Amino acid sequence: MDLLRFVTAGSVDDGKSTLIGRLLYDSKQVFEDTLASIQRASEARGLDDLNLALLTDGLRAEREQGITIDVAYRYFATPKRKFIIADSPGHVQYTRNMVTGASTASLALILIDARKGVVSQTRRHSALTSLLGITHLVLCVNKMDLADWSQSRFEEVGADFRALAGRLGVRDVTVIPMAAVSGENIVERGEHMPWYTGPTLLEFLETVETPDHVSHGALRFPVQYVLRPHTTEFHDYRGYAGTVASGTVKPGQEVLALPLGVRTTVAGIDRYQEACGTASNGDAVSIRLSEEIDVGRGHMLVDPAHAPAAATRFTADLCWMSDGTQLRPRQQLWLKHTTRRVRCMVESLDDLLDVETLDRNGAPGSFGLNDIGRVTLKTLEPIFADPYAVSRDTGSFILVDGSSHQTVAAGMVREVLAQAGAGA
After folding, report:
1. How far is it between the farthest Cα atoms of the chain?
2. pLDDT given at position 361
3. What does pTM read for this prediction?
4. In angstroms, how far is CA 317 from the centroid of its own chain?
5. Record: fold of 309-419
6. pLDDT at 332 > cutoff 80
7. Which of 194, 216, 287, 419 is 20 to 30 Å from 30 by CA-CA measure?
């Protein structure tokens, strides 16, 4: 079975956690001991029915406040597909958490309260999912029971959201009316919306086709660790461990080691101390090379015919995540890209995204918490990057404050402006 990763997003109290809880409960994915714990917690709060939001809101502060603060990951499977859900927060102050949850998702569920329609957080989360390369959005028009199951209201909200998605360049939009509290159109259909003839949410999730986020087949293998066991059995073993970010690699294949600029051949590929004939996107393996060259963490093995740019200056979309500092021009930070870490300088802040209007305003003086905008970065050493639209793995990075060691921003490479030589 294939795996679908999706993220939920929406404004506060739109019912994200309840929807995920209902999806898990109605699809028989909740263990009896977990159900008993949720039952006790619901009774302690004076509720007559199960509060299914407690299945994902696991932090004490979340349960006390009735909101989602951190990203909660849940796993389930049906006979047709496996799923990983990222239930992300709705509060604007936790936008950075939502970015984390959406960074690995192929699909986004955007929840809207049928009574409120499109609000500020709807626009913010939709803009973020678009920037993060999620090209298929599912609008879950929730709380239809509180909107008298109105077809006209459903169509009105759907039209508003499609207009928003159009401005973001998102063409694939699916709109589903539902009531998460009662489970209408989550797993099973109900009797209150006979006018809706589309799929339930689970039916849709089981059948939707999502695009591969790697739009090229060229090999990208960031080296994470050098394996030298120094045992009698593996005395001469030297392998380069990591995860294949894109493409395919097999024994006998010629590769280019960056930043060395040296070509060599793959002698073998190992997984769990067993040789394998090939490795492809997402496989964690150890690669042996036919020659002993000085390859280490932060280096990358690539397809010589389709090598990535050795970028030293590039533009990127950035989400600033620090609540204690602001981002300003000429600021110096550490940049972490795949397994490589280099020093960088913020050459300029080029624009700031207005999530209300979706317009990009002129160069700001600084970025504050949850601000999103375009920047130009200059690195002391090259990073081997593809545009984010080509590959999420080699097109994304984080920025780290050198003094506090805190992750302060997440970024997506848009355009390489300057490159170093292949042997830089």
Report:
1. 74
2. 92
3. 0.84
4. 15
5. Elongation Factor Tu (Ef-tu); domain 3 (2.40.30)
6. yes
7. 194
